[in-house]
Amino acid sequence: MAGDRVRVLQVLQHAALGGGTLLAMALAERLDPARYEVAIAAGCDPTPEGSLLEEMRVGGLRVFALEHMTRAVKPVRDVRAAWELGGLLASWRPEIVHTHGSKAKLLLPVAAQIGPAPVRIAHLHGWEWQPARGALEATAFTVAARLVAPTYHAMIATSHATRRQGLTRGVGHATQYEVVHPSIAPEEFAPARRAAIRREVRRDLGLADDAFVVGSVLRLAPQKAPEVLVRAAAVVASAQPHVRWVIVGGGPLEARVRGLVDALGLGEPALLVGPRRDVPRLLQAFDAFALSSAWEPFGLVYLEAAAAGLPVVGTRVDGAPEAVADGVNGVLVPPGRPDLLAQAIAGLVNNPALARAMGAAGVEHARQFTHERFVAEIGAIYERLLARQREGAQR
Rounded to an integer, what distance in angstroms lies between the CA atom of residue 344 and that of residue 101? Predict the structure, then answer.
């Protein structure tokens, strides 16, 4: 405790722009400061998507940089990262340690041998076996997840699908899991000057006012299968030459994606703008949103697009059906099928009334997923675990 406040340390393997980082920031910014003192400890390795560490500091958040924490598996650095995190636990002495991501989850039990972590929570933004390269690596990650699960007092899944996947693989037991859907600030995606911003963004990007613009915001990495998105764009472009695509994001596959855009002759209709922090502004210039994920624990960006009034097209994987009301505010298709993705997008291009109706439904849909709801649910979990800890200490 810090005085009469509960110290909460959120641990991230990186501070790259993405759902886990944004949700950790939302918690740090919105948890009751009279009750909680919150800090974020994050790896500071450079990533193609950039880092939000400096933005956190400028925003007044307390940040600890973990010099040895990396996203990739690097045994020597991982040992050093566990030692570094353990030292932070010993010096700052949080009462709750809340990890985000697989690496932080796997290292905390080791770090807790050095410094205290009385209440441990693992926030599951997906499973470590999902990006595995082959069955052997997937098995190793599954075993690791099973081994560390008993050391946690709670595991917060971003979707019911994520919870089911963990239980199916024997990770933890049912009573450990909580499901808390991610959140956004819907009002940030519906600005008062919407029409003016739309014109400004289109002018900045060189897009005609009357073009139908499909936007995508994603990490250019295997999870998001960006090549499928580009191939779908090529199918649409062959039949709908007035359709334009804006792809926002960076990542390890960026060079390959740019090469595919050139190879398919999409240099004019497809625009890659790299990682951006003005996504709410960019979304105003789009007429539809598309994503081609191979796996998706939830899909926070679906909510952002919905809040901006965009009909969405995505893939029916993992927790995506919990983020998108299929047939209401968007259309979900099987993964790995650029033809079906293109067909769904063409359906919106050819039916403006349907696109408008889905966009309007999306605005209402997104209002269920506010930061206030998210923080209240996490806070309730904190209080239950703290009460349980106090009861155990009194026995």
Answer: 32
Phi, psi of 122, deg, nearest 5: -110, 120
Mean pLDDT split into 10-residue runs, the chain, 395 residues: 83 90 96 98 82 91 94 90 97 98 95 96 95 90 96 98 98 98 94 89 95 96 96 95 95 95 92 93 97 97 97 98 98 98 97 97 97 98 95 71
* Domain definitions of the chain by residue range: 6-183+370-394, 186-366
Helix (H, G, I), strand (E, B) or coil at 270: strand
Predicted structure pTM score: 0.93
Cβ–Cβ under 8 Å, residues 389 and 6 = no
CB count within 10 Å of CB 217 equals 25
Q: Does domain 186-366 have CATH number 3.30.450.40?
A: no
Cβ neighbour number for residue 374 with a 10 Å cutoff: 19
Domain 6-183+370-394, what fold?
A: Rossmann fold (3.40.50)
Alpha carbon distance 152, 181 (integer Å): 20
Enumerate residues 6+ apart whose C-beta is below 8 A from 233.
214, 245, 264, 266, 269, 270, 342
* Range 229-238 burial, b when 16+ CB lie within 10 A, else e: bbbbbbbbbe
Enclosing H/E stretch for 141: helix 135-148
- Separation between Cα atoms, residue 93 and residue 107, nearest integer Å: 17
- Quote the CA–CA distance of 394 and 357 in Å, as a whole number: 57
Chain position carrying tokens 């690596």: 137
Q: Which two tokens stand for residue 273?
A: 């703008």
How many helices and strands in the chain, by DSSP H and E?
15, 13
